[in-house]
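Record type: ASSEMBLY
Status: queued
Input:
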Amino acid sequence: MVETGKVPQILILEDDAEFGPLLKYSLEDEGYAVSLHTNAQTALKHADENHVDLVISDLLIEENGKPSPHGGVTLISALKQIRDHPAPVIAISGAFTRDKYHAISTAMTVGADRTLAKPVSPHELLALIRQLL
Amino acid sequence: MDNFNDVDRLKVLRGLSSSETVADDRLDAVTLIAKAYFDASTAFISLVGEERNWFISRHGLSDDGGSHDPSFAGQVIRSDGPLIVSDAQLDDRSAHTEHFDEAHTRFYAGAPIIVDGVAIGALCIADTNPRDLDGAGKAKLASLAEMVAAFLASPSEEAREEYVDDLPRAEGRDSVLEAAILARGESEDARKFLELILDNIPDLIFVKDAEYRHIQGNPAFFDLFPEDMRDSIIGTTGAEEINPEAVEAFQAKDREAFETGQSIAIEQIAVMGGPMRTFQTKKIRFENSNGEVFLLAVARDVTDALEAEKRLLAANAFQNLMLEHIPDLIFVKDAEFRIVEANQNFLNVYPEDMRDSIIGTTTIEQYDEQERNLFLEQDRIAFERGATEIEESVEFPNGERRTVLTKKVRFEDLQGEPFVLAIARDISELVEVRRENEQALELLNNVFDTVTGAVVGLDADKRVLMINNAGRHILGGITAQTPFAWPEAIVFLDPQDMAPLESSHDPIARAQIGQKIGGEVHLMTRAGADDTRYVRVTSALVRSQSSPLHTVIVLDDVSEAERNRQQIERQSRLDALGQLTGGIAHDFNNLLNTMQYALELIRRDDLSERGERSASAALKSITRGAELTSRLLAFAKKQPARATARTMSEVMLELKALVDPAIEASITVEFPALDDELMVFCDQGQLQNAVLNLILNSRDAIMQANTGHAIRLSARSVDALPAEVEGVSRQDAVHSTEGRLAQQHSDQVRADGQAHRYIEISVSDNGPGMSKAVVSRALDPFFTTKGTNSGTGLGLSMVYGFVQQSEGEIRIYTEEGEGTTVKLFLPRGSAETGQEGPIALAPLVEGKGETIFVVEDEHFLLEQLDELLRELNYKTVLAPSGRDAIKMFEEGVRADLLITDVVMPGGVGGFELARLARKIIPDLPIIYMSGYTGFTDEEMGEVIAPLLPKPSSPSMASAQIREVLDSKAKGDADG
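Status: finished
Output:
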């Protein structure tokens, strides 16, 4: 549970129609304020106009069945490399596996602080969020 | 009917006293002559009486004579000349002549016997065959009948006394003959015989007196003249009648005979006023007892003989013409091998000045010894065996060389002398044509045997009548002579189940029943053989009546093309599968993600024990599902990979740590000791995964079949990747990845003598191996032989995805019962640049026989250098340390170049060795070798020399050595 006072603001970029809302509600249950976006443009706009404490971004956003240019990589590079945004970023991608030898990440390269591979466990995610905040 | 008068006839008959008993052997002579002259079956003389007829002479008839009524004679006397019945069966005149019927007589002819101008009977001839009588025959028959009449009118010596002979007689004839006979004192029988001869001889015999007047002649002579003239010939010269233009000539010959005793002449005489005929006349002078001089002339009609001679001459001329115009050489040899006859063609093979002297000589001296012997041998064979035939190439005496076919045949002349007839036919052109045909055939055969397609000609019984080299090869190295049966070992297979095709699909069987096979590709094998080939089959029926060929079949070996095609097909199938599975896996992973997240949220609430169990089971399944999608993604290349360069020794070390705990102790896993320089460039995690996968596959294979116990890993550098090794790629399932092929292509295009180097990592086991069917599908996703629950079928396909992504290659070498080796070829890494760039493949520079002293403490490297230098045409002297080298120099060992390692144990390093060596050989060229290349001139000390980095490629080393030696040589030359 989030401590009273200042409610941490979390920005989520996730295009999965089921997982996005599930993530949002589970974090709101934990007391966070969540803003859910399905593309990098609206997410970035939200970040520019609002205070954001933490970013959770899916790397691969699909548009009409194809990888969208407005995915997580775009969002993270825009935030970290252009705006030098202070909020920590957790990158989530279905393309990761748990194999420890595959700890290579585009996300890390562009500025993500941590990566999580789908399927994501709520315990892990919440632990990570708490750690980063 | 002048001669027919019954009253007169009977009067005459009566006049012939006792005519019923007339039995004159002269008459018998006439019938005998008539029968013989006319070659008749019967000749007879019949007198026609008042109530009956009777035979007074006969030859050939068995009839008792006269008891019947042979009315033919009666018919004859009613005619005014000879009467002929050619075929009694067709002539009603003889319908009632039973006499002839009895004897089956078909032909008869009769001439009336006229006495005192009255026909009293007939001289008849008869024959059992139908025939005819020409004018001369009729005349002869009539003259014989006249003779009979004369005999009847003048009875023989005995009868003469009894009967009065009142018939007219040819006085002169009798008197001359009688005189001649009497003069010789011959008997009456002899006279009769002479008369008979005179009367019947075909020669003209006549007598002339000293005034050239005819005084007598035989019937043949009188026949010369027309009938109405005959009586008046006697007493005349008669010459005008027979040839008015030759009167002088006749008389000249007469005169000659009278003067010289005899003369011979060839005369033209008209017979019966008809055309001229040629006679040879001999005239002889004789005197009668009264001293009178006469001329006896015998003239023989030689017209026919002359005609025959002319014909013979013409025939000979024709024969000669033929002989001279036949192109063959024709000649006759006698028993001494002398040429006795020859045609012009034969003579023409001799020089012109020799041709006249050929006949009568053997001419063999005109030929060389070999030909001479051959000729004589053939002659001998012909004489001994009757015939011989030989084809020979002969150089004739006129210098021409011809090929002749010579037949020799023995024959004998009329005296029984043996000869050989030889006919030599010039067949040079034929031989030339034959040779051209053979050449054309050989050319055709060469083409036939050179084409790479197999061409096989079959007859209707599926026997091979013709086959080219390619055909013999493709059908399994057949050496049998044609014709032979189509090898039953050749089987066409169904590629699906590798079972032989039924005959309704077998291309050869179909071609034999007339189907046209137009380039179908079939899988062909030989029973008992291991290899299979893809062949393109084309067939055609032969539509030739004259050829036993039924079908021509062409088999093209398209195995390589077909396997390439199949590989490309498999490749694209894998690519398609990869895209499909990648897409599915990604989506599926997202679904798993949501499910897991949701389930775990649920578990955060207090669940009943049952709820907790269910959620936990579901989460475990999600975990397994996630692992599966992970592998799918690896295969599908969707997994992001970051390639880095890493030394192989590190890779192997980490693998060993992973593998050792996982593999049973009963299985030995051998890891190679590796050079630290060897680096591989790829995604290191995936590499470990891939090799681990291969090791686990080997372990499973070994455990499954319990056949072996060893897995061996190895890794080495491969300079030029043997991409398609002939014979290996054909037999084994080789899978070149797209990236590898593209890389190789770019290496080739660059064509600058540079190429990428590769690391080959292989995993071998001595397990049961894989069958062809298994290996051909080994890389397919979800294909597994491990049973339904023990594997996903994604292991090798994941490895495949990895090497493909890494621009490498995977090859599987397997043999059922022998084991399996899987080789991964991966780009070689470099510490500086990650992936190593293309390396120059400089050619090795050869030596000129110089001696090189090599000093190196690392034994393996020393051996390698020694081997390389010897190959490059250098002589070598080797030492394992600086100390040993110095000792050898002091002992007098000399060399053109010293190559020495810098760091060596034993107190004498490279630089020190160089210094000492130069003291012994002041201008000795030196090259240093070292892994460390940063030495300064101060560190080198007294001897500054080029430094060869370790390791160096052979080309680099050889170039450096050559350069140093050449500059030394140049310096020496410059002084």
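Annotation: The helical segments of chain A are 19-29, 40-49, 72-82, 106-110, 122-132.
Annotation: The first helix of chain A runs from residue 19 to 29.
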